[in-house]
Structures are given as structure tokens and as C-alpha cells.
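ESCALATION

Customer reports they have been waiting on this structure for their group meeting. Please prioritize. Original submission:
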Amino acid sequence: MEAILDTNFILACLRRNISFLDELEAQGFKPILAHEVFEELKDLRQTATLSDRVALDLAFALFEKRKVHKMTLGHHKVDEGLIIKGKKGAYIATLDAGIRRVVPNSIGISNAQNTIEITRQ
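Update from on-call: job pushed to the front of the queue and completed.
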């Protein structure tokens, strides 16, 4: 199964020290980074605070070291592309309530356990 990562999910996991790549792989998911999300992260780095910049640099290093598979969402905005992929059966790792409401399979963060949680409809 593939899990497409969203920007806010990546940042939230890094801020909470959740090793999301390990947890996704342990649960049988193949993490995928959309090119558009990667560009969002690069743009966000330009205006981020120091702690977020360090977290983003860590994310870039993790993606490079772990050789996370990359893909493109097509000619859509990021959220629209994630929704389209989610409706086709991919799991979307996001904290965005608008996306989670529309896609049948999503991955979020459990606040109580500080781990990732899978939601299936």
C-alpha cells in the first residue's frame, strides 16, 4: 500500500519527534513524497522559524537517506491532487480536515499516543 505524505503531516511529525517513515513502513505502507509537496516544503523553508528550518532540513536528509519514492500529482493544486489520488485508493497522510473528510483512507497523528493512526471508511 502506498501512503502519500502531505506537508502538514511531515512538519507535525517532525515537531513531535515521531519517526513517521519507520512507523509507516512497519505497518506495511510505502511512503511516497509528491513533487508538489516537496516544492511546498522548500518554499516553506524560506520563511520558517529557526526550529522549523532545522526540522525541514532533517526531513530533506531523511528523504534522501531513505530514498523515499517520489511522484507527481499532475496539473492540480496540492490538495486537489491528494484528494484525487485518495479517491483512487491511496492512503493520504495529512492533518487537513478537508482532505480527511473526502478521502476514504487517511493517516493522521494520535495525540494521546503520539504515534500515527490509520483511518479507513
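Sent to customer with the following note: The chain has one domain: 2-120.
Escalation resolved.
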